[in-house]
Amino acid sequence: MLLAACSGPGASNQTTDQPGTGAAQPSGDLRVAVISHGTAGDAFWNVVKNGATDAGKQLGVTVDYNSDGDPGRQATLIDNAVSQKVGGIVVSMANPDALKTSIENAVKAGIPVITINSGGDKSASFGALAHVGQEESVAGEEAGRKLKAAGKTKLLCVIHEAGNVGLNQRCDGARAGFGGTVTNLQVDINNPTDVESRIKGALQTDPSVDAVLALNPQVAVSSVNAAKGASAKAAVATFDLNSDVTDAIKSGAVLFAVDQQQYEQGYLPVVMLKLYRDNANTVGGGKPVLTGPGFVDKSNVDKVAEYAKRGTR
């Protein structure tokens, strides 16, 4: 009896093939559409994609990954997935209102949806099963506190995507945690030269800025270069990781990175959709499944750097 009570769903003494057990039975192959707002070549979203495709390979799930930074075209990708009658949809919501109708239509069509990364506050109301990501305002607040503890008093928060609610939440959170002066700077991540130029110009205009908070690894690298070009003493911190950021933390050019473990944001929803299809399981109890924030600095960067180089952190 004890052995039977402790056995998991895959244990050999289970009798789920007998009538009357109430167990959900899988039918056919599961195909999941992962639709993000990532832009081409964005290292962050490459890690999300790696997580989703790795989960698919391990679980025997077909994963179709598509992305588009334009909210209208992202909505069209969702509509296309619905018309193709996929078994599940995973979608990031940088601009929730633009995706609302498409997500609700997917739910009406009987397709389970899990949201990731952004828009967690709208996820349940749109009918999604769960949200996987971090609370952006909380992460921003913690980053602001760390910069305050480092003795910084004037912060430049760099927003690299217009209309991305999560990025604004990060800066608002940083403002709450930092306590000093915080100024937002809007740049376009699709124009790296202009990103560096704008940050450099802001630091030259106001030499009293002693900290820059980037919200993306590519912007972090541009921020480091901009500070050097402006001969500024501003420290740089960032959200998210890649190998360039881990190298910069090692060298001292970046103080820390806020790690939301985006590999999990690709991996976990595929697992969750498989469990839902096969066993009617849900995860989170209506609350977000949090993947962050964690922090990477000189104390732990060596270990994390190994995984960043292989594309899983």
TrEMBL record:
Compositionally biased spans, kind Polar residues: 10-19
Entries under InterPro entries matching the protein: Bact_Solute-Bind_Prot2, Peripla_BP_I, SBP_2_dom
Disordered as annotated region, ranges: 1-26
Domain Periplasmic binding protein: 33-276
Localisation: Cell envelope
Coiled-coil segments on the chain, per record: none
Annotated family: Belongs to the bacterial solute-binding protein 2 family.
Name of the protein: Sugar ABC transporter substrate-binding protein
